[in-house]
Amino acid sequence: MSLAHSLLESRRLQGTGKVLKGHHNTNYVLRVGLLLALLIGAVPYTRFKYRVPLNTIEVVPRIWPCEADVLEVVCRHLREVPRCRAVLGDRSLHRYRRGKVLSDRDFDGVIDDKLMREFAAFFVRAAKVPVEELPPPPEDWPADGDSQAFLHWLIDFTEQRVHQPNRHRFGGLFDAVGIPRGAMATFKENHQGLTSRPFRLLHTDVHRANVLVRRGRISVIDWELAICGDPLHDLATHMVRMGYGKQEQAVMTDLWAQAMTEADYHDLTSGLDKDLETYLAFEYAQSVFPDVMRAALALPGDAEKAHFQAAAERVSRAMGRAREPLMLVEVPDLEQIVEALREWHMTTAPRAAP
Ligand SMILES: Nc1ncnc2c1ncn2[C@@H]1O[C@H](COP(=O)(O)OP(=O)(O)O)[C@@H](O)[C@H]1O
Ligand SMILES: [Mg+2]
């Protein structure tokens, strides 16, 4: 372990700074002292975020294992994104940008047009990043512009890397809450013939907890899940994960299309209406797996009625959103979902405790 790494670890273990926990990392906010600043080439006493990965279930694709490689390119073009200053094994040190996280300011409220314009401008900035500067994608990555193959790659990922590998722990629960076993195969069959759009850099996780706001301007953090693909996928994940209502979705779509057109990216908007619906449907469809697993795993060992009720509500919301996309004829009611979660908790949870 390098000296910088040991200094950071001892600072982390002192436990004096702010700790920010996300889905994939625990982040320790700390000011670097003189020695550490010298070692990493930073200004003494500036604030950094020390990022330590959590051991979580894989639920979304991560095609570039090193976020720092992606950030190097991103920060060259999006100056507002905090830089990665050092990579230390599986940990990394990022600049800490002042500002309020949108989820702290506004957990689920309506987003005004001004902020939506900011998001639209962000998507244009991401689209401007030259894709040839990005790290190479995996070997089986769809060819540039093959939007249909891109969507199908995502569907296959959900089936082969999320659904199937988790069946041994969650299969009974997936079945009991009403997810058809062939959900992804059917979805794939029903979503063919997408329009071709050029591939761009996508963040894929632009939600409130990944957005810092300062003086009305935004900075999007957390680039671990960035990929290169069809820009409509980024717009769809953004709209779903922000929790926009129908009206807000329509406004956001118009602003996005307007911003892309003004930037001369007409080809990114072709087939927009039909294909955005498809990506939205996919986002609702795929999220039943992480939503069900996360709800179940969040149950404490000594879970009581209220815990099961809350978990069941979470599952029920996810199933409700996936009803149309997965063409579900019947979704179990809350009571049946509580029962399914109790059964899972009794038979599987103790052995599967994370
Ligand atoms: N520069 C920052 N300023 C304020 N809060 C931050 C900052 N960076 C991260 N956070 C908070 O920490 C959380 C987790 O950070 P993030 O980089 O998104 O990690 P994860 O990969 O675990 O989601 C964020 O959702 C946000 O609430
Ligand atoms: Mg995050």
Q: What would your notes on this structure say?
A:
The chain is of the alpha+beta class. The protein has helices spanning 3-14, 34-40, 67-77, 102-105, 113-128, 147-163, 167-176, 183-190, 231-242, 246-262, 272-286, 288-297, 305-322, 334-347, 349-352; strands at residues 18-21, 25-31, 47-53, 84-88, 91-95, 100-101, 200-202, 211-214, 217-220, 227-229. It folds into three domains: 3-96; 101-146 and 196-286, Transferase(Phosphotransferase) domain 1 (Transferase(Phosphotransferase), domain 1), CATH 1.10.510.10; 150-192 and 287-354. Strands 1-2-3-5-4 form a five-stranded antiparallel β-sheet, with helices on both faces. A three-stranded antiparallel β-sheet has the order 6-8-9. Strands 7-10 form a two-stranded antiparallel ribbon. The radius of gyration is 21 Å and the shape is globular. The model has no long low-confidence stretch (mean pLDDT 94). The structure holds adenosine-5'-diphosphate and magnesium ion. Adenosine-5'-diphosphate binds next to strand 2.
